Amino acid sequence: MNKILISGYYGFANAGDEAMLTAIVDSLRSQEPALEITVISGNPKVTAQLHNVKAIPRFDVLQVMKAMAKTDILLSGGGSILQDVTSTKSLFYYLSILSLGKLMGKKVVLFAQGVGPINSPFARKLTGYICRKADLITVRDDGSSEELKTMGLDPKKIIITADAVFSLPTGNKPLGQSILQKYNLGQKPLIGFALRHWQGEDRFCPEFAQAAVLLAQKFNAQIVFLPLQFPADEELSNKVKALMGDKQDAAFVLPQSFSAEEYLAIISNMQLLVGMRLHALVFAALNSVPFLGVSYDPKVDRFVKAMDGKVTGDVAHITALELTQKAEELWQQKDPTLAGKIAGLRLEAKRNIQRVIKLLPK
Length: 362
Hints:
Blueprint: E1 3-7, H1 15-31, E2 36-41, H2 44-51, E3 54-57, H3 61-70, E4 73-79, H4 88-103, E5 107-113, H5 121-131, E6 136-139, H6 142-150, E7 158-160, H7 173-182, E8 190-194, H8 201-218, E9 222-225, H9 232-242, E10 251-253, H10 260-267, E11 272-275, H11 278-286, E12 291-295, H12 298-306, E13 310-314, H13 320-330, H14 338-358
Parallel strand pairs: 1-2, 1-4, 2-3, 4-5, 5-6, 6-7, 8-9, 8-11, 9-10, 11-12, 12-13
């Protein structure tokens, strides 16, 4: 039986990353049903249950080495794990896993990675050195490709592909309606906000709150805060809701986490999605829901650019006026070319899995 070991930011209750893992596992099994998949996870028990895989603790060196010794391929990704903005230690951790794979003679794949920013000169040199040894390198956007090129990688070895999440189906709208109805939502048009903790919250939270009030009034809409990483996003969303003052009845914070399928279903019922979270924007695109990206990380700007969508200025300078004006421009807007773009990304996500399968021993 062929074996694949997957390394990424899994087991941390982040809906975007869990959606990626769902997409990767399902796509691999669609091509190779008997494949044995093991995931390095922050919560092995939950990961094993959610994704029907074997799972091992990410900091149990002995178990990681044993799994690496038995695997045919180390698949690193997807997501933005090769960056040092949120954590240099995290970057070095993922690089160490890649190095271990090569030291143990395994095929190593950088899978649909969103690379960068990597600011430390030493970290850039180390990342370039280790990534050059990979057997297959695929990235999810042009910006990630350029980042690797500046670190000395051969452009011919870098394949620009699609985020793994694009292999997921569109949302089950009736399922989303049934979830929303449990919270008495759906009587009015729904506008989703998918926010996350970031620097400068004391400045940008009041701006989001004011924008939520204005949009709720303008379109007689219900604001639904979507916590894609629970409970951290719920905490921030409640903070923004409280800042809406006597208008906070127009907003609701979903009080629990959901599966990738459920988030897709919920977002399919939105009329508009305003998001910092990249995969909230991806979920909206998959459902042809107009979305407004809030720039805080290059990955958001790269995705929105690829979709020819709208993105705000940097979150450090965002204003309620800008948010409201751009949201108004998107209201009920349907991009006639979006379906074609999504179809192309779905095809590329499938091709990316096929590239991995070709590396398995015959």
